[in-house]
Amino acid sequence: MAKQKRKLKGIEKCPTGVKGLDEITEGGLPRGRPTLVCGSAGCGKTLLAMEFVVRGIQQYNEPGVFMAFEENADELATNVESLDMDVRQLVKKNKMAIDYVHIERSEIEETGEYNLEGLFIRLESMIDQVKAKRVVLDTIEALFAGLPNEAILRAELRRLFRWLKSKGVTAIVTGEKGEKSLTRHGLEEYVSDCVIYLDHRIINQVATRRLRIIKYRGSHHGTNEYPTMIDETGLSVLPISSLGLDYSVTNERISTGIDELDAMMEGKGFFRGSSILLSGTAGTGKSSIAAAFASSTCRNGEKCLYFSFEESPNQIIRNMSSIGIDLNKWVKKGLLKYHSSRPTLMGLEAHLVKIHQKIEDFKPTSVIIDPITNLTSIGGQAEIKSMLTRVVDYIKTNKITGLFTSLTEAASASEQSEAGISSLMDTWILLRNTEVNGDRVRLLYILKSRGMAHSSKVRHFMLTNKGIKLLEAAE
Known about the structure:
This protein has helices at residues 21-24, 45-60, 73-80, 87-92, 117-130, 142-146, 150-167, 259-263, 286-299, 313-321, 328-332, 348-362, 381-397; strands at 13-14, 29-30, 34-39, 64-68, 96-100, 134-138, 170-176, 194-203, 206-216, 226-231, 234-237, 253-254, 270-271, 275-280, 304-308, 336-340, 366-370, 401-407, 427-436, 439-449, 459-464, 467-471. It is an alpha/beta fold.
C-alpha cells in the first residue's frame, strides 16, 4: 500500500485588507515577520502602511501600532480622514497607538556607544497597551539622518528586527528608494522575508502608480507589476494580469437590440458573457449600435454600464433620441449608468482600476466601452492591448457581456482594429462607408462570431428616426 503524501502547511499569512494586495500575495503578508515596503516619494508607502493597521482593526479585530519618524500623530490622522479612516476614534477606543519619534542630530551628544533601547521600550509599551498584532515603522530610515554612527545603528536595526519577530507581531517597515538599491540605506539587508516595491512614474505626461513584489520568502506570489490607484477608498491594487482561460461559458443568447442583426446570428443575438467588437471609420454608426444594445439590455430589466471616452452622457442621450432610442428613461430607472471622462485624465492603469471599481459597485450584466481607440492618446498599442486583455478577462469571469467600439482610419485596412485587440473578441462586426450613385451608404457585415452560425452577407445599414434598419445586401 502506497504511503499517503503529507500535505505541508507553509507559512501563515496576515491579510492586509488592502484591495487586491491579498490576492497577489495569496493571502497577505507573512504573519509574525517584518515586510519592507519601499519606493520613491509620493508612491503611497505611508498610506499602504496605515491601511494595513486600520483595516486590520476594522476587518480582522487586530489592534495595531504606528510609529512615525516624519509626521506627528495629528498630521497622520488628518491625512487619512478623507479616506474613511478615523484614526483618532481608533486611538480613543484603545485599538490603535500612534507615536512620533523625532530625532535631531544637533541635539545628540555622542559619548561612547549608544543603542536604540529607548525605542524598544516605547514600542513595547504601545504593543502591550493595545495588545497589538500589527506594527508599522514609517520610515525608520530617518534614524540614519539623525544618528551619527552608522555602524552602531545598523547593528541596532538588526537587533530591532529580531526583536519584532520575537514579539510575534506582523510588521511593515517603509523605506525611501535608493539610487542603486531598493532603499537608501539598504534596509532590504535586514528585512529578507517580504519586500514590496511601489513606483510612481510619469508616462505620456500622465502619472501612474504600480506595485511589485520583489520577493516573498516561503510563499508563492504574483511577480508582475500591478496597477495601483489612490482614491476616496484608499489604495487599490488591481491583481488581474490574466485570469487565465478557465472561465465558464453559457449557451444563453441575448438580443443585440436590432432584430435584423439578431437574424444574422441565428435569430438569437450574442452569447451572454461574450466580448463584441464594433469597428469602423468615423460616422459609420458604431455608437448607435452600442446604444441599441444598451437599450435592449435595460428593456430586459438588466443593468448596463456605459464608459464613454468621447461624448458626455447628455450628448449621447440627445443624439440617440434622434434615431428613436430613448436612453434617458433607463438612466432615470437606474438601469443605465454612464461614466464619461477624457482618456488623458489619468493613466491606463488608473482607467483599468476605475473600470474595475465601477463594475464592482454597479454590478451590470453588460458593459460598453466607447471607443477604445481614444486610449491611444495615453499609451501604445501593446499597453492598450494589455489593459483591455485584463478588462475582457475580468468581465468574462463575471459573465458580463462586453461591447467595445473601435475607430479605424479611412486609409487603414478595414479588417483591422486600431488597438489590435480583434483576437480577444468573440464577435467582430465591421462597419464601413461606401459611395453608390453619388450617395454615401453604410454597410455592415459580421467578420466573425465564435461558436455560432452567422450570416456572411453584407447589409445596408440605415439610421432612421424610428431606429436602426438593416436592408438586404447591395448588388
